[in-house]
Amino acid sequence: APAPAERMSRVKESPSSRVADRVREFQAAGRKVLPLTIGEPDFDTPDHVKEAAIAAIRAGETKYTSANGTPALQKAITARLLRKTGQSYAGDEICVGGGAKQLIFLAFMATLDEGDEVIVPAPYWVSYPDMVTVNGGRPVTVATTADEGYKLTPDQLREAITDRTTWVVLNTPNNPTGAVYSESELRGLTDVVRAHPHVSILCDEIYDEINYGARPVPSAVTVAPDLRRRIFLVNGVSKAYAMTGWRIGYGAGAAGLCAAIGTLQSQSSSCPSSVSQAAAVAALDGGREFIDRTVGIYTERRDLLVSGLAAIDGLRPTAPEGGFYVWVDASALMGSVTPSGKRITTDAELAEHFLDTSGVVVISGDSYGCPGHFRASFALSSEIIGEAVAGLARSVELLR
Ligand code: PLP
């Protein structure tokens, strides 16, 4: 077999993909699991979106498109961005790829030289650090605190910036904590970035439609339109429209960056799927009915999961302002002992204990750069959430 390249030592399989595989294995073996690991909506893609894709297939929209997306999709994206941010983006300031994930990866590939730094506030989405390192950069993680609502402060940002800093990553709403930056918090951070002209902001807004507070979710570009060319907004249709398998994401920012991403796509995937792009147009142009309905359902599930977890001694959940995850502080359980006499010293061991004793699967905090915690998803039916809460309560009660 060909020997792996050196860069492969700088990347590992995404922990969420690994856990998802593990859940499938358990289920295949006939074991009942309660997977609070789910990282995608459990709803079906809306019918009008499916119909648009079928119509596109019938109309012969089955060929390569331009690398950064069809004019129709670029138009739908610019309309959405105008609605959300008040900014009008031109077609060459938009790029479209196979998911927000691919665009973040390509943005790093297009901009990072060996040793360039990317500031990543922790807890972070599991993929950012690996995406940085495999592209030659250096992730600089900055621990946020529960007291600050798990948000990066302007002082922390100022201290983390060096002359090698290329990007700061802001993920709002955040996976895993559910934190949403307010306009004034974003203003504080963009003020710091304004004073450092070599620093850009990668704003991952993939969960922005799933939010329980002010709408639209504030965006860095709204509070600092003068930094528009230094802000790369990343979004997509996966979470808002239950379209994870269609693989369409988009970015908006400097035309030069979008062109570079287009060049990389032209030499790797050629373009995103033509059929999925037609579906994404229907999603973005199709009104808010689906989003309003599903956010209503998520709200009930969120309340169920947060109140259930809060009632368990030793667990401290944070009610998310956006997204469909609850971030849970389980540090009080570290050092406790299982019935078989095993001392739990890490969140990974705690997650194993949950799985062993009640079949509940959670993703441990170390994956997000924040030990002593875990992430619990509520992209699941209320029934499963109820069973999982009961299971976790039993598992915790077994600890001494
Ligand atoms: N960004 C964050 C914070 C996510 O949690 C995810 C998916 O889990 C993505 C990006 C990727 O989304 P997409 O399906 O558009 O690649």
TrEMBL record:
Regions of compositional bias (Basic and acidic residues) in chain numbering: 7-19
Cofactor: pyridoxal 5'-phosphate
Cross-referenced PROSITE patterns: AA_TRANSFER_CLASS_1 (PS00105)
Transmembrane segments: none
One Pfam family, short name: Aminotran_1_2
Keyword Transferase listed: yes
EC top class named in words: transferase
PANTHER family named among the record's database cross-references: ASPARTATE AMINOTRANSFERASE (PTHR46383)
Name of the protein this chain belongs to: Aminotransferase
